[in-house]
# Entry
Amino acid sequence: MRIGIDVNCWSNRRGFGRFVRELIPAMVKQSGGGDGDQYVLFADRQTAARADFPEGCKVVVAETSAAATAAASSDGRRSIGDMWAMRRLVKRETLDVMFFPAVYSYFPIANGVPCVVTFHDVIAETLPKKVFKTRRSRFLWNLKSKLALRRARRVVTVSEASKQGLMKHFRLPAQAMRVVGEAPSETFKPVTQIDDAALTRHGITPGERFVLYVGGISPHKNLNTLIDAYGAATTRFPDLKNVRLVLVGDYAGDSFTTCYQDLCSQVAGRGLQKQVHFPGFVPDEDLRQLYAASEAFVFPSYLEGFGLPAVEAMACGAAVIASDQGSLPEVLGGAGHLFDPYDVRSVAEALERVLMDAGYRDELRRRSTERAQIFSWERSAREALAILHEVKA
# Structure
């Protein structure tokens, strides 16, 4: 089977970028070359210049004016010319199926080729005021989503929770939906000895206690509630002031809506400047060290499609404290401590319990290590390929 894939999200640092970079090589590896499936990867010029695509694939590059992920940002707009350039490239190839690993970079293609589109979540639909800066951006996102759904033979998502959310919001039938889970990269695994230099590079003193968050510095991630809860916990139990709150995420180069300045003002208003730290983007090798060295990983999102940082943290043996909303209870499967993200007291009590009870913290770490073993990109690749073959048939 000849499979076309939109890889314009390859360089994105968010979860759906990771989905593309991990899933596609795993699919290519499973196909094994020879008489197996063949792949045609469609990329804009800007993405192709930086990407390390898997060997054995045909890469077709469009002469575009801007990278799709930048143009489709929270306050941007992809040009019609760029989308038409991508469409023309797809039309020139003989394909059995076209796969979009993220609706974020979807572009209309000619009729005739079966199409599979991945919607990672319903965050934009459920929490639009926390995602879009303008009404125009919201309108264009909704238009793109509707066009993609109309064209899709199957809709893929990354968790059962997201599947239910998509079915409810878009009134999709269950038979049109499929789930392809995510998994941690091979980089994320237990650490036998912490690399002090990795911590120092990102403003963390080796040996100090800290709680870690990893993800977007965006409104729907609910970091303002986490900061309030951290402040409440350290006020109630002064010994916890020695445990810093480290919020990892790209607040400078991210194409999504950021609330970094608001969070900095909140931290200053509470007098927590020495206790709350924003290292910015951290590469995977160093991030592994941060996960492993943390007292706990905390994930306070109002909604997640999957919640990949939580699984990465578990793969490194971290104790996990997380929101009880969206996919997170499903993904954690009892391995983490859950709280109500809308309730500051609930978040504070979760922090207090895990940080003050070493035995409970160690138990959560043990559960994390066991739970992380069920996730693999090889399984995800098998699931994705089965869907593409099903659509082609």
